[in-house]
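Check these lines:
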Amino acid sequence: MEPLPPTSLHQRILSEIEELILSGRWPPGFHLPSELELAESYGCSRMTANKALTQLARTGLIERRRKAGSFVMRSQSRSAVLQIQDIRAEVAELGLPYHYQILQREQRRSGRADRERLVMAQTGPVLALACLHYAGERPFCLEDRLINLAVVPEAAEEAFAELAPGAWLFGRVPWTSAEHRIRAEGADAETARALKLRKGTPCLVIERRTWSSEHPVTQVRLSYPGEGRELVARFSPTQG
């Protein structure tokens, strides 16, 4: 097994702050150190500290307020339908420890089914991943993801040891548009086995596809046990 690449300073800051929040040592509402304080503490530039805080805000763990600073997000019991949220942050909202494991990983040339999933115009390299996310000791979500390596070639060498694929992509590839499909579906044999459910148990399934400009980045299918799941969106009327 090849050794993992050294952890960048940005990734170290990100991981250590995530651990402080998810462990409860930095509770909801906690005022984080400023960019300048983080830069001095880690011996890095303010730009590096800003990058870490920005990624934490994107994943929903912290809230950044102009002139006031950064704060740990307060617990929310419901997730927004159209928000691309980090699964780790979803588990944190439940007050449970999070971990995940990669069940399958395959790099290949895209077949017809892959091209349909990603809406690819032509054959190209893809990375297929299956991950299981946990809330405490219980399976929380089964992730089936396809990444377009023509757009994100560095994913081919990424071990995803510190960040799950979704969070890793979100912090590195700016997406310009996304498509969600949400439905209830009975668990098939594979999903039931992974989530420790009976076959046919209702699951909430979210399928999401994202693009960077006109290029497809990733397509993912997220399957959650249906019991206790609720999705809510807040919106305002458009100006006509």
Q: What stands out?
A: The radius of gyration is 19 Å. DSSP finds seven helices and ten strands in the chain.
